[in-house]
Amino acid sequence: MNYEVLKKELSQGINRIISFIKVQEKDTLAPMLAEQKIQQQQLNRLGDEFKEFFELLPEDKMRGKFVSLARELLEASTNSKQALLLVQKNQKVIYDFLKGKQRLQDHYAK
Q1: Which residues contact 64 (CB under 8 A, 6 or more apart)?
Q2: Considering its fold, how many domains does the chain have in total?
Q3: Strand partners, 55
Q4: Do the Cβ atoms of 43 and 49 come closer than 8 Å?
Q5: Sign for the pseudo-dihedral over CA of 34, 40, 46, 52
Q6: pLDDT score of 59
Q7: H-type alpha helices, 1-110
Q8: pLDDT of 54 higher than 80
Q9: Are 66 and 110 in the same domain?
Q10: 66: domain range?
Q11: Shared-domain flag, residues 69 and 39
């Protein structure tokens, strides 16, 4: 008789432990695994974007978006430099005109 009661109590205890584990799995582990899966997908996507941005050729030369952007920046810098040189040239011409105007005013003011 005592063995039957002990066996029943033990069985109920095991069932409580199993149900507790199932609740923990549903409430804690499943959301953690889902979040981990999302993070892994994001990391994979970032890795792919990184490879696309910094594409290395077998001869250790770079190609990809980074190189394209660097070329665009270099071209923009060159264009800016040329524009600044043109502005300086025009400023010099204007300065020369102003000096000539001042000389003429000084000459005819006398």
Answers
A1: 52, 53, 54, 55
A2: 2
A3: 63
A4: no
A5: negative
A6: 65
A7: 2-24, 30-53, 65-109
A8: no
A9: yes
A10: 62-110
A11: no
